[in-house]
Amino acid sequence: MTALPSRRRTFAALALCAVAYLYVFPYQPRINNPNENVRLYMTAALAEQGTYVIDDYRARWGWVNDCAVRDGHAYSVKAPASSFLGVVPYWLYLRWIDASGATFDRTVALWLCRVFASILPWLLFLFAFHRWLGRHTSSPLVRDAVFISLALGSCLYGYGLLFMSHTLSAAAAFGAFMLLHDAKHAGRLRVARSFFAGLLTAAVTLFEYPGFVASFLLTIYALVAVRPLLRLFPFALGGMIPTAAMMHFQWRCFGSPFSPGHLYVEDDFFRGRHEEGFFGAVGVQPEALYGLLVHPGAGLLPLTPILLAAVVGLYLLVRRERTRMDGVTVLGLFLLTLLGIAVMNNWRGGWTIGPRYLALVYPFLGWAALVGLEPAWRRWPRATAAFAVGATAVGLLLSGVPSAYYPHYPIPVDRPVTQIVAVLMAHGYAPYTAANLLGVYAGWSMIPLALLGLATLVWIIEATPERSVRITAAIGGLLVAIGLAYPLTIDPRPGHAEILEAQAFITRMWTPEGHDDAARLAASLAETPEPEGFERLAELLDAEGRANEARAARAHAARLAPRDEP
């Protein structure tokens, strides 16, 4: 028995995700995010000039990191797929400007690239993913909990909001796996499906260079899954398209179809890191394994705890003869990807939300978690429902909320919710949201997103028809969420200088500016100065780690304070 969802249920799941992805626009232009900007520069160069060279856009919009320089010209060092996907929306935006006489706005261009080259393709995958999960469990509640945990309660949400490639590399990899898995168990693969399986398999690497491991393993899996064997020809034909695109990009930019740009990185520090070992691979590092998997503020399992069930699921998949090859493929993909990142000297990946270099494995582990929860659901439905709902709530809190606010946490920040997000929420900071179109800013603008999160949990609980299970899922899920989340939100370094520095940097550079409590109070004091107000302003700034501004505010308060007459 399976929990194959109705199309209405799948569209409801997709609508919840679409609102979450399209309502909020976390954009901080003053941090000059190289991961997005270098992709946007390449998209602009292709759309406007038909070239990979981004010299003119660095001159127009400013210097950006993550560039490779060869023969005096700058290129994006990133795998090119996301930039390719951004060309059409960017080009259409230019045509609209020409027709309407409007002024080009780089922020609008980036938003369009995010929506059409990241969010909408990811939502298309989520539609197929939700239906596919339903074929592998008898529990609608478990199906929807796993789905929401990945879509909104993992780092896939944070990176799906940005013009980056992590979520789409995951979508390409698991999209290929779904096609090949179905073919293997049906004993036959149609020509069109074989073509698209090959296209997606090779596209993984076109999105992310480390995705080569997944592309290779999925190709091996295809040799077992594709029948009749002649259907491997359309698989190979599909794979040739992303492969040819990658080779053309590397040939025109770096002089060889087989040469990535990492050894031409402009930044001396990062080029030196890439030159260590084999393109930065220096051997397995225990601290990397800890940081990627179980670090309380950045690890895969704490931030998306429903994936704990993947341990059981992988065991079951490998043990059963019918699914052994599927399980071995998923386990091998996970372990080789993990080890491939753990040997890199830049395994953390800079300013991140969660383990971004492991984004590709999340759908695979999500499916394994579903498989692991299935026997538990059959035997202990109430306890399983409580765990699934509670774990999903923790994912929404520890991954979803930080993603919506600020998906770029500096390395010293090891508890994003406690150390950064709590301050932002308490002091009225909020990213751009759809509510801004109605003139609503600050914390008020985030209330619809919070209500959406609560509604999503209710939607998951309502998936099961048994009233007693629903009640247990609600009450038990709350207890599980508290038990899991509380220890993961305890700040191990309250008041530490590095955390205060991070708070100060983030709040000073915040966009949209002028709507937080400190900014609004400062604007009021500019019109009506009073010592009590400046004292209050100093307290706000101190709580944000902005010691220099707080001292200046107290100095204003002292100058305005009445002096005793002699």
Descriptive account of the structure:
- This protein has 566 residues and is mostly helical.
- It has a domain at 498-560.
- It is 66% helix and 2% strand.
- It is built from 25 helices and four strands.
- The chain has helices spanning 7-23, 34-49, 55-61, 81-100, 106-134, 140-151, 155-160, 166-186, 191-207, 212-225, 232-254, 268-275, 286-293, 300-303, 310-319, 324-342, 362-379, 381-405, 416-426, 447-461, 467-489, 497-508, 517-527, 531-543, 547-560; strands at 24-25, 67-70, 73-76, 432-433.
- Strands 1-4 form a two-stranded antiparallel ribbon. A two-stranded antiparallel sheet has the order 2-3.
- α18 (381-405) crosses α21 and α19 (416-426) packs across α22.
- The longest helix is centred in the first third of the chain and has 29 residues, at 106-134.
- The termini are far apart.
- The relative contact order is 0.10.
What is the succession of H and E elements?
HEHHEEHHHHHHHHHHHHHHHHEHHHHHH
Largest sheet: 2 strands, antiparallel
The overall pLDDT average reads: 94
Query: Which class of secondary structure composition applies to the elements?
Result: mainly alpha
Counting DSSP E segments of at least 2 residues, the number of strands comes to 4
Spatial separation of the terminal alpha carbons: 90 Å
Give the spatial strand order of the biggest sheet: 1-4
Low-pLDDT runs? none
Over all CA atoms, what is the radius of gyration? 25 Å
Percent of residues in beta strands: under 5%
Specify the overall morphology: globular
- Please give the count of helices: 25
In helices, the fraction of residues equals 55-70%
